Amino acid sequence: MELTSKRRAELKALAHELDPVAHIGKFGVTPESLTHIDKALTDHQLIKVKFLGFKETRKELSEEIASATSCTLVDVIGNIAIFYRKNAETSE
C-alpha cells in the first residue's frame, strides 16, 4: 500500500506517542520477531519497532519486516521504525 505524504505525516504524528512493541537486537529479524510484529499489527495497525543492534542496516531490515508482514514502512527515524497495516475489519 502506497501512502500519500499527507497520510504518512498523519501516521507519524499518531506514532509519536507510541512505545515500541518489538526490539530487534543481536539476533536480528527472527521468525519469532516477525510473528510478534505481525500480531501487533493485527491488534494495533500502527506500531513502532526499535533497533538495538544492526543500527547501520536498520533501513534494509525495516523493508524486510514490511515485506514479510505485508505492511507499509511509514518511516525510519533514528533507531525506530514505524509500520502501518490497515485492519480489514475497520473502515479507517
What's the helix and strand layout?
Elements: H1 5-15, E1 22-24, H2 31-44, E2 46-51, H3 58-69, E3 72-77, E4 80-84
Number of strands: 4
In terms of DSSP E residues, the strand content is 15-25%
Kindly give the count of domains.
Answer: 1
CATH C-level label: Alpha Beta
Q: Give the topology string: H per helix, E per strand.
A: HEHEHEE
Largest sheet: 4 strands, mixed
Helix content: 40-55%
Detailed description of the structure:
- By secondary structure, the chain is an alpha+beta fold.
- The protein has a single domain, classed as YhbY-like (Translation Initiation Factor IF3, 2-Layer Sandwich), CATH 3.30.110.60.
- It is 40% helix and 22% strand.
- It has three helices and four strands.
- The protein has helices at 5-15, 31-44, 58-69, and strands at residues 22-24, 46-51, 72-77, 80-84.
- It has a four-stranded mixed sheet, sandwiched between helices.
- The radius of gyration is 12 Å and the shape is globular.
